[in-house]
Amino acid sequence: MNAKVLLFLLLPTSLFAQGFAGLGLTADGFSTPAPNYDFTFPEDHGPHPDYRIEWWYLTANMTSTDGTEYGLQWTLFRTALAPEAGEGWSAPQLWLGHAAVTTTDDHFTSERFARGGIGQAGVTADPFEAWIDDWTLSGDWSDLRMTASGAEFAYDITMTAEGPLIFHGQDGYSVKSAEGQASYYYSQPFLSLDGTLTLPEGDVAVAGQAWIDREWSSQPLSDNQTGWDWFSLSFDTGDKLMGFRLRQTEGSYYTSATWISADGTTESFADGAFDAQPLNKYQSPGAQVPTQWRVTLPERDVDITVEAINPNAWMPLSVPYWEGPIRIEGSHQGRGYLEMTGYE
Amino acid sequence: MTRTVFTALLSHWRRNPLQLFTLLAGLALATALWSGVQAINAEARASYGAAAATLGEGQFNQLVSDTGGPIPQSTYIALRRAGWQVSPVLEGRINGQRLVGLDPLTAPGGLGPVTLGEGAELDAFLGGAGQVFGTPATLEALSGIEAELILSPDVAPATALTDIGVAQRLLQREGEVDRLIVAQIQPVGRPALDDIAPGLSRQVAQGGSDIGRLTDSFHLNLTAFGLLSFAVGIFIVNGAIGLAFEQRRPVIRTLRALGVPLRRLMVLIAAELLVLSLVAGTIGVALGYVIAALLLPDVAATLRGLYGADVAGTLQLRASWWVTGMCVAVGGTLLAASGAFLALARMPLLAAGQARAMAVAAGQTARVQAGVACALLLLSLILGFTADGLVGGFVFLGAMLVGASLALPLILDHVLRFGQRLSKRATSQWFWADTRQQLPGLSLALMALLLAMAANVGVSTMVSSFRLTFVAFLDQRLSAELYVSTEDAAQTATFLNYAEGKVNAILPIRSVEIAVRDLPTELFAGRDHSTYRDNWVMLDASAAPWDDVHSGESIMINEQLSRRADLNIGDVVQVQARAYSVSGIYGDYGNPIGQALIAEGEFDALFPNVDTTRFGLRLPQNEVSDFVAAMERDINLPASATINQANIKAFSLSIFDRTFTVTGALNVLTLAVAGFAILMSLLTLATMRVPQLAPVWAVGMTRQRIGRLELARAVLLAALTSLLALPLGLMLAWALLAIVNVAAFGWKLPMFLFAFEYLKLFGFGLLAALLAALWPSYRLARTPPSDLLKVFANER
Amino acid sequence: MLLSARGITKTFDTADGPFQVLRGVDLTLEAGETLALTGESGSGKSTLLHLIGGLDTPDAGEILIDDLDIAQMDDTARAALRCGAVSVVFQQFNLIPSLTVADNIAFQARLSGRHDAHWAAELADQMGLAPQLRKYPEQLSGGQQQRVAIARALAPKPKLVLADEPTGNLDEATATSVLDLMLELVADTGAGLLMVTHSDRLAARMSRRVHLARGQIA
Predict the structure, then answer these.
(1) Which of A35, A107, B584, C190 could crosslink B556 through cysteines, CB 3.0-4.6 Å?
(2) What is the pTM of this model?
(3) Other CB atoms within 10 A of residue B363 CB
């Protein structure tokens, strides 16, 4: 087995990993999230090396001038071998980057690995910059710039915030299971973007909306949770909805959602309020996944179907999963992103 | 029915245990030689493979510093941040072991400690005291270093793998890397290398490890041996099966007459052969393992000494090796039995019982055989003039060997006919005529002898030619009497101060790795001294090559670089900003990579940062040991920092002697196999000989006389065959040296002849035939008169 | 009718061109009947026996054994016939040298799955082979070897026994005793016997006699 794959399977990176016994039950000196955390910025945009895992996760829905739809992903994961920052090659912080561009016909992906402590990858809070190799996400969170490249694609995007940061769960304390596993979780879903996609057929100027998720934890999953389906939905009304369901070994699942009004006010919904039911099974390049869903949140009169713009948006990386842009129809219309992990 | 028939078939072996033994032994011997040689090759290749996989030299392009020094780690980070997908490697030596530091996160897939399997503590590998992976011998040498030692048999011998951070700490080279592996897939829109790291240049992947390519010449010898001995072995098995079928003809007829259908009989005989070949294959593979285990230490020493290739001295059992060994045994049996099988299938029920001579070649068959032999020999003649490249060389070899084998019985027949015409006396006339009559039955065994002898002549010539060339080459290149290495600039200064005036000349040796036309090349600084002018032998040169070099306008290159980069005298070689014309091409045997030499002044200007730490000293040979002792006493330069030229040469010669041990052992084994083939054929013929000899006995020749003539007949045939094998073997050697060698390794070896060696081989060939014929002729000489009489009584 | 052969022809290729050995031979044999087939050397009597035994195939004609035409059978079917319904006793004995006498006697019956240990023992006893059962064929005299071959042929209780000069390799006294034993046992089993011989004396012991000359029944 490739050492790299092994690395990310054996280590507790594992919101992606599926049901490793004992995972998340002990924290080995790592800090664990607690309610009533007092977020401070820009510090909390930076890394939290005393937590086991952390990510900066950006997805975007875009269109070119001729109306063609695109999606993109820029993700930087941090995973810690020990709860300290460290210096040089022996620093116990490892970094993993995923980037993708999805068109209606193609899905381009790339992956990067790096050690912390030598400057190849990292995040600084002030001024804010997150990078791995030549991929960057930087700016003051009012204005941000993002670049990434792979063997067949590259992009260079600028973004402007048009709304506040959003805190999920209980003021940013997001519970992930009935047993109480939790993470810190905030988002910036109000980004408008402009930029250029470099694709095999040439450069494409695009405009659209982006959504950043920030999350960190040390014990993210309960040991009976096998994967998750995560939705970030932007309705044409300007309202937004984040919802996920964590699938459990016995077939049940745990849901959570945040309703984000156009003005930035939020309402969190505990387990059971939000629901998502798969409507199909599609043989994507890596696994059978549902690429059509019925999503409901009765409290907000949401009853919609979402469908992948490109059902082949499989991420064939060291940790494989499905991630791609979706269209929304039904009680609400709009665009969004869907991520599905733990399908084999 | 099946069981009954099977019992009847197997009961034959119970009543003829000697025959069973010869069949099993022949097959086992053939399998053993083949799989033994394969085991040695596989073991060595696995070692090179492990080294290449560790270091990525074969598959990936590399970035190295122009000046030959280390690359700052900051340059690595700068390249990564510019999008270049490169991975750092740091190398050094600790306790004589090569320590290689890699970054497992960025190394291209498949590189690095591949056994970093389940249970390996990745955080322990990546941080803390770190982990070092190596073979038991490597780890023993490294005991005491500050890291956890992890046993890993897949790591190349004398090499230890660790994280690059750990390597930097253990080698005390923080912040440095030696080279960067360039991943095959790179992102779009990446800036040019010169914009990010102007001091680095790219080395193109070599497509297979250098060591592997270099040592292929050695493995070629072994493989040729293995293949030929297997071919010889198949002749034996063919003989043994032929004998068994011959003897069981009446039984097979009876079985069919009693109502066993032919198809079932064939299936059962095939099953019987399958069982026997599996048994023999198992014995053979086990024997092959023993052969390989006995020879491997010599092979490993040879490879290490000749090529610097580290090969584990102990053998690992590989499943693939067992499987191929068994396949070879079974496949070989089927191949050898196919003739007898076809004969059985076509044999009419009623004719089956008649004892008849084995496959006496009918006139038409002989004509076809002659035609094919002529066509093949003609093809090889044409290829001999036109072939270049590996494939051409091997087709040439194949056509020549097969053609010669097919022609052998016809040539022998003509020689014997000529002998018959010359002879006057009745006995000798009968002797020649009877020998001709035996020829068809013995021809397969004689072909085996021909191939074995030719292989021995060819490979001996190749190895011995290589030895002569290489030793002469060492004399040229190791012309200084003493070599000294210093550790740092201070010690260099002390040494130079001290040695100045005490010796006849001090010749600094300086080199740097560069790329010439994208080929890795070692560039040396040459001082203007008679040592070089007098000793170096040029394969091609301008009118005054050394003057041209020292004028600062020219460069000399080795043969490998000349052939690979297609550089000839007068062509221009670019080294950084300077252009040099090639003024000389010299032989550089045993070197895997390109080499070049420019004037010392030019070198200093281009590579000011390369320290001089090695020197060749010219002084009278008898003063060397005193001088070494004096240096140790006066300036504290240890004897271990000096190399005595005489010692190197002695070492090189001892390595060649190891090579000869291996070659010699294989010589004896192949001849033994050929002798066995002759024995089997004679035993087969012996059953048919009695009726042929009975009339001669009846008319008054004693049985002892008949036995002696039988012996003489075998030796005569072996001698004629061995004589024919000599030119064939020389052609084989020529093809290996002049065609295959050039294509595979980039240099041509001159061919030398070794008359005494051939005489010895000839003697061995006769001895093998004599030993093989001893028992059958003894048995003939002791045939009871009653058996001879029965011939007349039984005749219908 | 146990055996009925009609219009059998057979031609061999020889160095001097094709030679027609059999030129339309007709022959019948009832169960329990013993028939001598006599003729000069080269008259084709052995060839005819081989054809009836399914060891060779005729160029034309039919050979019915129990109303089955063996000329139309393939090799496998004819082989099955040989190890069961029809047994052949050869002049050259054709024993299997690597098997003991006991195994040789039982061999053909085992092949056809008709082995009967009592019957085999009785045959050995009657043939006077009881003391030789553990020996190998090469340790026996010619007469003993032929008795083993006859016992082997009778062990499967065949309907038809074909014998090709069964006593040709034996001296006269031995030949007589072997023939006596064979006739006695064939009579016991009720089989038909077709024996090729060139001896008038032996032919006279059979219930009927036909003579083959120039490829035809005279």
Answers:
(1) B584
(2) 0.53
(3) 7
